[in-house]
């Protein structure tokens, strides 16, 4: 049975958007995975780490999927719903989850030999460098400028260039903390949305795509996009991702 526009909106509006799991979109949206395999890279580096910090852990999804975590494993998160979710998920496994003030991490200098972060919003690069031990590694997968721009403009119309640092700018910021950048890669990843409910769920969850998004404020462009998808098929956009790895000199 074909679901109505209003029914799809109501379904997506009622969905829980806490954390960084996207299982609600199964069968409704797809996104290519980055070719470097962030979780695999983390799992490889964890094997040689004795103390690990995950910055902006979201709901703790990455750490929960990594086997053999070091005896000292900590995570930070400052968004209250995600902080509560991460604590419920990670603390039973002995992982310390703290409210992460990006201006000053609550850890001593040279505490960790591996610091990771997936899709940080306000990455505290200088603090990451401070808490890294000499010889330690920083590994992060970031969101590049213009990520999902086709989707954003379908909702808001043409947009000015974003202010998010591009990979090279991020690498320079990391270098200024005293770390040595050893790897920098980027990729544009095809994403498809199969119904307007998937679009609404994504925009509610990934709030920087359309920062002032609400269903009522954007009902007209949502209706236009719904009609377009009914006739033309899935809406295609592109996620921008980059990987940066850096090492603290010994």
Would you mind describing this structure in some detail?
The chain has helices at 5-14, 38-46, 61-64, 80-90, 125-131, 149-156, 167-176, 196-205, 219-232, and strands at 29-31, 51-54, 72-77, 96-99, 112-118, 132-143, 180-193, 235-247. The chain is of the alpha/beta class and 250 residues long. The protein has one domain: Rossmann fold, CATH 3.40.50.150. Helix 1 (5-14) packs parallel to helix 8 (196-205). The chain is globular, with a radius of gyration of 19 Å.
Name the descriptors.
globular, 8 strands, alpha/beta, Rossmann fold, eight-stranded mixed beta sheet, 250 residues
Helix/strand layout:
Blueprint: H1 5-14, E1 29-31, H2 38-46, E2 51-54, H3 61-64, E3 72-77, H4 80-90, E4 96-99, E5 112-118, H5 125-131, E6 132-143, H6 149-156, H7 167-176, E7 180-193, H8 196-205, H9 219-232, E8 235-247
Parallel strand pairs: 2-3, 2-5, 3-4, 5-6
Antiparallel strand pairs: 1-7, 6-8, 7-8
Helix pairs in contact: 1-8
Helix content: 25-40%
The CATH class assignment is: Alpha Beta
Compute the gyration radius: what is it? 19 Å
How many domains comprise the coordinates?
Answer: 1
The amount of beta strand, in percent, is 25-35%
The CATH homologous superfamily is termed: Vaccinia Virus protein VP39
Number of strands: 8
Number of helices: 9
N- to C-terminal distance: 63 Å
- Uncertain segments are none
According to CATH, the fold-level topology is: Rossmann fold
Element-by-element helix/strand order = HEHEHEHEEHEHHEHHE
CATH architecture tag: 3-Layer(aba) Sandwich
From the helix content, strand content and strand pairing, which structural class follows? alpha/beta
What is the overall shape? globular
Largest beta sheet: what is the strand line-up?
A: 1-7-8-6-5-2-3-4
What average pLDDT do the residues reach?
95
């Amino acid at each position: 049975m074909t679901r109505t526009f209003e029914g799809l909106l109501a379904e997506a509006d009622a969905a829980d958007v806490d954390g960084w799991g996207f299982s609600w979109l199964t069968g409704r949206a797809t996104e290519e995975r980055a070719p470097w395999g962030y979780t695999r890279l983390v799992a490889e580096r964890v094997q040689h780490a004795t103390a690990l910090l995950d910055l902006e852990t979201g709901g703790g999804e990455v750490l929960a999927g990594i086997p053999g975590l070091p005896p000292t494993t900590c995570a930070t998160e400052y968004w209250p719903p995600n902080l509560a979710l991460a604590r419920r998920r990670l603390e039973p496994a002995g992982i310390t989850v703290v409210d992460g003030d990006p201006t000053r991490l609550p850890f001593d200098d040279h505490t960790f030999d591996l610091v990771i972060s997936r899709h940080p919003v306000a990455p505290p690069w200088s603090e990451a460098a401070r808490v890294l031990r000499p010889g330690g590694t920083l590994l992060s997968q970031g969101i590049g400028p213009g990520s999902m721009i086709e989707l954003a403009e379908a909702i808001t119309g043409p947009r000015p260039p974003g202010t998010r640092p591009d990979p090279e700018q991020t690498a320079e910021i990391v270098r200024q903390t005293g770390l040595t950048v050893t790897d920098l890669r980027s990729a544009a990843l095809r994403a498809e949305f199969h119904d307007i409910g998937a679009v609404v769920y994504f925009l509610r969850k990934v709030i920087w795509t359309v920062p002032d998004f609400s269903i009522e404020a954007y009902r007209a462009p949502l209706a236009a996009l719904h009609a377009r998808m009914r006739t033309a098929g899935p809406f295609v956009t592109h996620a921008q991702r980059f990987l940066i790895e850096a090492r603290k000199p010994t």
